[in-house]
Amino acid sequence: MIKRTLTTLILTFTMVFSFSGSAFAADGKTASTPSYSTVTEVEDWGASSTKVIVNLGEGKTVDKGSVSADTFKVYAVKYQKDGKTLINVPDKLDQTRQNTIPLQGGNRTITNAYVSDKDGNPVSSSNFITLELKIGPEDDLGSVIYATGNFSSEWAVSKYTITQQKDISTSNGVVSGITVTDSTGGVRKLVDDFKTGSFTNAEDNVTLTFADYTPTQDNKKNPLVIWLHGMGEGGTDATIPISGNKACNFASKEIQAYFDGAYVLAPQAPTFWMDGITGGFGDGTSKYEKSLMALIKDYVSKHGDIDTNRIYIGGDSNGGYMTMVMVRDYSSYFAAAMPTCEALKDSLITDAEIDKIKNTPIWFTAAKSDILVPVDQYTKATYDRLVKAGAKDVHISLLDKVLDTTGLYKNKDGSPYEYFGHFSWIYVYNNKSVDNINGKTTTIMEWLATKTLKTSDSTGWVKNADGTWSYINTDGGKATGWINDNGTWYYCNESGIMLANTNVGEYVLGDNGAWVK
Q: pTM for the full model?
């Protein structure tokens, strides 16, 4: 990734990587003609085709252990969404020709093969065989989303030819000579758990598409996680923003467990969130701001079990920009924010706006190796100003580099694979952004799940002239005693001054005044 040309880096910034698919609707029915279906999963670099499930056809039942990785060969050709136009797969051998020569296709590496049911689950005997395929951050043939060339992305159509290389012995004879070219579609893990829709704001007639996930209905209030996409994922196909990188992971069992079930809303702009009101790009405004807020409010109004005190917003890059804009202009609406490699330049944020933003719990994630939005002009600069302004609940995961966290992908020297520095969103989706909070290593999802809008009669913290802190109630008075602020306990004495670096009875208060559990 580090050695790629500038052209490839720009494509990388758009968060677009090739993707396979066809009609995503496998029926799994046994047929006399062999066929195949695909399994797509969204990885840290984007969506990849991870398996093909081969239906050998009627009467061709095979037993467990009868197939291996070299029983079949899988040849893939990638087309644009029309299914006819070849996609320019980068030429790894000649960087000067990269993205200029349409390659006719290539063999996918099979890493495992086993007898399965129609869904790819191992079974003792069946007429289905699952072939697991090698994938990786530089495996362009396996990736299944492609850049259209105008800073948007589309699902690709990958057509496979699966050819039997070795005979398969069965109790009924030998299965041999099978060639499979007919596709019955496939599944996209997690992505297919989302629904899609659109919303038109009556005020400005702007239409936004969106993907959304609904948790299991459990007769209780659930939080809402809003995620805003990056620059390469605008358009009208609302599955692109959750698949161009790993935003669909907010619907995974691991992430959902932190919230005991959460709604996920992924709005999509027709172009870029950074399109300014007057036509400027990244000027601190967005022509989609009003329609986005209207969409959010409309969505909340139509889902009565959303906890309006636990609405969280986040986004990466272009979406991180929009996250900052929304927190700036609607600071009392969101319980917390997760701007990631955010692209709102610090010089565009006034001191008065910092004063508004500081009251919203925020967790920034960015990498020092990000050359597209340098942290000293964006994330780190804004974080430092918020801390100086007295923000009580602001955190930052500032990475040196963006490295593979799975242990699966490595450089030639055995070190973890290094992604382009702008890819810090990987740490958010995988819950790898951490900070030391009240003496405890805390992940971003642990932190987020505790955030709630203040529902008491308090209006928040103020810094006194002598540098001490007080918690002001709506009547203008200073709160005293124990204060639970977004899940963190503080103590103010009889004069309303927050205590720090001391004990209150058996309870220890840390440097920032928070109870050290």
A: 0.81
